[in-house]
Specification:
The complex is a heterodimer of chains A (about 110) and B (about 110).
Chain A lengths: L3 E4 L2 E4 L5 E7 L5 E8 L3 E10 L2 E4 L6 E7 L2 E6 L8 E8 L7 E2 L3 E5 L1
Chain B lengths: L2 E3 L3 E5 L4 E8 L3 E9 L6 E6 L3 E5 L2 E6 L4 E6 L8 E9 L6 E3 L3 E6 L1
The chains are: A mainly beta (about 110), B mainly beta (about 110).
Amino acid sequence: DAGITQSPRHKVTETGTPVTLRCHQTENHRYMYWYRQDPGHGLRLIHYSYGVKDTDKGEVSDGYSVSRSKTEDFLLTLESATSSQTSVYFCAISESVDTEAFFGQGTRLTVV
Amino acid sequence: GQSLEQPSEVTAVEGAIVQINCTYQTSGFYGLSWYQQHDGGAPTFLSYNALDGLEETGRFSSFLSRSDSYGYLLLQELQMKDSASYFCAVRDEQAGTALIFGKGTTLSVSS
C-alpha cells in the first residue's frame, strides 16, 4: 500500500472555528490533492499541489486554503468552518500526471 | 470546463457481465481512469486508458474511444465483493494535473 496518512480520521468542530487537516506521504510523490466527497456529488477537487510551495485551486476551493512546505506534507485549512463543510475529505498523491493516484483513508469532518 | 457523465446506479446478479459507461467533456485530454470505492473506504485505482481500445486486467476491462469522448468499464463474472461505487476520471488542462471525477456509479450485485 502507498504510504499516505491522513489525520485526524474523525473530527467534530463548531461553526466558526479553524480546522486543519493533514496529509502525510512517504512515497516522495510530486503531486498531492485534496478532495471532498458528499452524497450525490462524487469526489470534488478542492486544491492540489504540483510541488513544494506550488498549489492551485480546484472546483470547490472557496473557504479552504492549503500549504505545502515539504514534499511529504499537504495541509488543508478551513479558516472558519461552516456546516456546509461537513464532509468526508480525501487526500491523494500521484507520481506523475500519467500514473495512478493513491488515496488516504479519509477524514470525516462534522461541523456543528 | 470539464464534465463527466455516468449512470448513478446499476444492478446485476452474480456471474453476470456489467458495463458502466462514461462520457466526458474536457478542454484537453490526458486519459480516462477508473476507480473503485467500497462503502467507508478509499477509492482505489482500477485502470487507465490513454489510447483508443480495450485494456484488460483480469475480470475487469476498460475501453476508450477518444473520437467519441466515451469509455466504459466492463466487469465480468460478477462477484458479491464487486458491489461498490465506480468512478471514471480524467485529467483536464483547466484543472492542471489533477484528476476530475464523475459522480460515480453504484453497482449492486445480488445472489
